[in-house]
């Protein structure tokens, strides 16, 4: 009995010693982790850890992207020689007859030098015609087709937006000439001695104006005198079509 009792005491003593060793190891690990954290905090400074810069606060790059190239456009106030200017016209679609017509002109200096094009009635020729007859001829007009100066860079083209009145030139290019009717037209434009440009465009018919409706009069009694009948509105005179002019030489 005594030997068996002694064996139990030794057993439990060994268990307690093992438990004490495990507790000591855990405590030591905790102390080590605390020391490491304290060192990290001291390196960060008294105000806490240094924040990592985010993408929003990152300074933009000073160099341009690889797919972009800086280009210097050279211009010059010297007047272009008319024969060195090429003009290519284009007319935006969806325009209507009976009013002004918007035209885009792309101007290029054929000799590759920068200059400023200043159009004049004697240096710029514009003709708008159909297969049947000419409609507009700028040689009949005393004023230039457009009077704005256009700067043409060296090696580049400039697009200028101009407006044609939409009227024919007639005999004297007056403002009383009629508008070009709906249809298909050819536009030719160029400088004297230069390369002319040409395009085809259409003018659509305007929607007819809706007549004004009059209110129905209330029935009158027999004793009420009848007023004189009102006059009917007269039809609006149709403006004459633009007369044909001589085709430019």
Write a concise synopsis of the structure shown:
This protein has 1 helix and 9 strands, in the order αβββββββββ.
Supply the CATH class of the domain at 82-203. Mainly Beta
CATH architectural group of the domain at 82-203: Sandwich
Q: Which percent bin holds the helix content?
A: 10-25%
Under CATH, the homologous superfamily of the domain at 82-203 reads Immunoglobulins
Calculate Rg over CA atoms.
46 Å
Kindly identify the CATH topology of the domain at 82-203: Immunoglobulin-like
Number of strands: 9
Tell me the fraction of residues in β-strands, as a range. Answer: 15-25%
Strand order of the largest sheet: 5-4-8-9
Mean pLDDT over the full residue set: 76
Measure the end-to-end span: 143 Å
Low-pLDDT windows of residues: 53-57, 213-219, 221-249
Series of secondary-structure elements, N-terminal to C-terminal? HEEEEEEEEE
Structural class per helix/strand content? alpha+beta
Oligomer: single chain
Largest beta-sheet details: 4 strands, antiparallel
Tell me the number of helical segments per DSSP (H or I, 4 or more residues long): 1
Structure description:
Residues 210-249 have a biased composition (Low complexity). The protein has one helix at 2-44; strands at 85-90, 101-109, 115-117, 124-129, 134-137, 150-152, 157-164, 183-191, 197-203. It is an alpha+beta fold and 249 residues long. Among the domains are: 1-37; 82-203, Immunoglobulins (Immunoglobulin-like, Sandwich), CATH 2.60.40.10. The chain has 1 helix and 9 strands, in the order αβββββββββ. 17% of the residues lie in helices and 22% in strands.
């Amino acid at each position: 009995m005594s030997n068996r009792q002694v064996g139990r005491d030794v057993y439990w003593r060994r268990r307690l010693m093992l438990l004490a060793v495990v507790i000591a190891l855990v405590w030591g690990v905790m102390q080590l982790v605390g020391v490491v954290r304290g060192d990290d905090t001291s390196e960060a400074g008294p105000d806490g850890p240094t924040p990592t810069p985010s993408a929003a606060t990152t300074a933009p790059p000073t160099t341009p992207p690889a797919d972009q190239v800086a280009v210097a456009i050279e211009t010059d106030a010297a007047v272009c020689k008319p024969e060195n200017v090429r003009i290519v016209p284009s007319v935006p679609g969806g325009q209507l007859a009976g009013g002004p017509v918007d035209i885009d002109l792309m101007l290029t200096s054929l000799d590759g030098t920068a200059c400023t094009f200043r159009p004049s009635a004697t240096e710029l020729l514009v003709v708008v015609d159909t297969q049947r007859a000419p409609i507009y001829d700028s040689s009949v007009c005393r004023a230039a087709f457009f009077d704005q100066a256009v700067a043409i860079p060296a090696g580049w083209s400039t697009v200028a937006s101009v407006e044609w009145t939409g009227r024919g030139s007639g005999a004297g290019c007056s403002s009383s000439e009629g508008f070009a009717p709906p249809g298909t037209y050819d536009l030719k434009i160029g400088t004297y001695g230069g390369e002319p440009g040409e395009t085809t465009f259409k003018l659509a018919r305007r929607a007819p104006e809706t007549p004004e409706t009059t209110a129905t009069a209330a029935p009158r009694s027999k004793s009420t005198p009848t007023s004189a009948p009102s006059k009917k509105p007269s039809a609006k005179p149709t403006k004459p079509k633009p007369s044909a002019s001589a085709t430019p030489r």
